[in-house]
Amino acid sequence: MTGGEAAALIAAIAFLILVFFIVLVLIRVTKIMREVQTTVAEANRTVTTVTSDVDALSKEVEGLLTKANVLLEDVNGKVANLDPVFQAAGDLGESVSDVNEASHHLVERLTNIGNSTAKASTLGRVGVGALRFYQNHRRKKTTTDNTQGSDL
Fold first, then answer.
1. DSSP symbol at 2
2. If you compute the radius of gyration of the chain from its CA atoms, what whole number of angstroms results?
3. DSSP letter string over 56-120?
4. What is the mean pLDDT of residues 66-83?
5. Distance between CA 116 and CA 121 in Å, rounded?
6. Distance of CA 57 to CAs 46, 47, 61, 68, 143, Å?
7. How far apart are CA 75 and CA 57, in angstroms?
8. What secondary structure letter does DSSP report for 1?
9. Is the pTM of this model over 0.90?
């Protein structure tokens, strides 16, 4: 074997080894591409399922929002109807407060009148006592004058 033949043989073997490793890499890339294809197919099926589920959910949510809006309008109407009731309750509270204040003033006046009456009653008793004292004194004086006049 000559040097050129040996070099050709070495180059052929190196090329064969290179082709062998390239084939191995291509086999692995093919497996990876099949797995990627399977994953993409599953992802497409999942996206399709999720899209259909989202469409159904979106329709249900739209229905719920419509019902919630109707319910909110109904509640707002009922609250508007209750506003006069709360206003009347507030007015009633003010009226009760005014009546309470008026009755408090009336009790104060009656207490003052009671105190004045008690004072007048005490003064009346003192006056009656003074009148009786005066009448007794006068009777004694008249009786004494009459008995002295009879003795003369």
1. -
2. 61
3. HHHHHHHHHHHHHHHHHHHHHHHHHHHHHHHHHHHHHHHHHHHHHHHHHHHHHHHHHHHHHHHHH
4. 89
5. 8
6. 16, 15, 6, 16, 122
7. 26
8. -
9. no
